[in-house]
């Protein structure tokens, strides 16, 4: 995203990303739009990363992937 525009991130986001990488994140992605969003991290040591990120002002939002595909809700 940064290659498209320097406005895609800021120092706060970059600092959180660097912190996560130093504490077990293999990679991450900024997701969301319009002044709000999430940092999504990938790690093979989720407990260690959670413990480290708990010390920051970030909030964890747990989720699960849905492998069933598109559903129609009536």
Describe the structure.
Helices cover 28% and strands 18% of the residues. It is α+β, with helices and mostly antiparallel strands. A two-stranded antiparallel sheet has the order 1-2. A hairpin with a 6-residue loop joins strand 1 (25-31) and strand 2 (38-43). It is globular, with a radius of gyration of 15 Å. The protein starts with 10 loop residues before the first helix and ends in a 20-residue tail after the last helix. The mean pLDDT is 88.
Order of helices and strands: HEEH
- Rounded to an integer, what's the Rg over CA atoms? 15 Å
Provide a count of the helices: 2
Tell me the fraction of residues in β-strands, as a range: 15-25%
Give the total of beta strands.
Answer: 2
Give the helix level as a range of percent.
Answer: 25-40%
Q: Characterize the biggest β-sheet.
A: 2 strands, antiparallel
Strand arrangement, major sheet: 1-2
Mean pLDDT: 88
Measure the end-to-end span: 37 Å
Q: What sort of overall outline do the alpha carbons produce when their principal axes are compared? A: globular
* Content-based structural category: alpha+beta
Uncertain regions: pLDDT < 50 for 5+ in a row? Answer: none
List keywords for this structure.
74 residues; alpha+beta; two-stranded antiparallel sheet; 2 strands; 18% strand; globular
Short description:
With 74 residues, the protein is an alpha+beta fold. It contains 2 helices and 2 strands.
Topology:
Elements: H1 11-22, E1 25-31, E2 38-43, H2 46-54
Antiparallel strand pairs: 1-2
């Amino acid at each position: 995203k940064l290659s498209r525009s320097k406005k895609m991130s800021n120092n706060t986001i970059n600092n959180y990303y660097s912190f996560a990488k130093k504490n077990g994140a293999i990679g991450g992605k900024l997701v969301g739009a319009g002044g709000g969003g999430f940092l999504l991290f990938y790690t093979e040591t989720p407990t260690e990363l959670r413990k480290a990120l708990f010390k920051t002002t970030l909030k964890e939002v747990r989720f699960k992937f849905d492998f069933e595909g598109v559903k129609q809700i009536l």
